[in-house]
Amino acid sequence: MPIVVNLDVMLARRKIRGKELATEVGISEQNLSLLRTGKVKGVRFSTLERICEVLQCQPGDILEYQPEDNSG
After folding, report:
1. Cα 9 to Cα 15: distance, rounded to the nearest angstrom
2. Confidence (pLDDT) at 68
3. What is a single molecular function from GO for this protein (predicted)?
4. Which domains are delineated in the chain?
5. Residue 38 and residue 4 in contact, taking contact as beta carbons nearer than 8 Å
6. pLDDT at residue number 4
7. Alpha carbon distance 38, 2 (integer Å)
């Protein structure tokens, strides 16, 4: 998938554990884990907004577009 989730990078930079972020954002640790691994089909803007508030970052710090290599 061309959308890469860099949430683990931001958690490490901010020295925040996933459990703490989940609590602050108001989502379950399981849903946060699915988001961290990129196994979700979408994320609500309200959830993304809360994540950015807690981590003091921009959505682009968390989500990245990497085109698939179709040259093979």
Report:
1. 10
2. 84
3. DNA binding
4. 3-65 (1.10.260.40)
5. yes
6. 93
7. 10
Buried b (16+ CB within 10 A) or exposed e, 39-56: eeeebeeebeebbbebbe
Residue with token string 């309200």: 46
Q: Please name the helix (run of DSSP H) or strand (run of DSSP E) that holds residue 12, with its range, or none.
A: helix 7-14
Residue 66 to residue 24: CA distance in whole angstroms: 29
> Residue 4: enclosing H or E segment and its boundaries?
strand 3-5
Q: Which residue has the tokens 């061309």?
A: 2
pLDDT tens figures, 7-48: 999 999 999 999 999 999 999 999 999 999 999 989 999 999
CB 11 within 8 A of CB 50: no
Phi then psi dihedrals of residue 69, to 5 deg: -85, 105
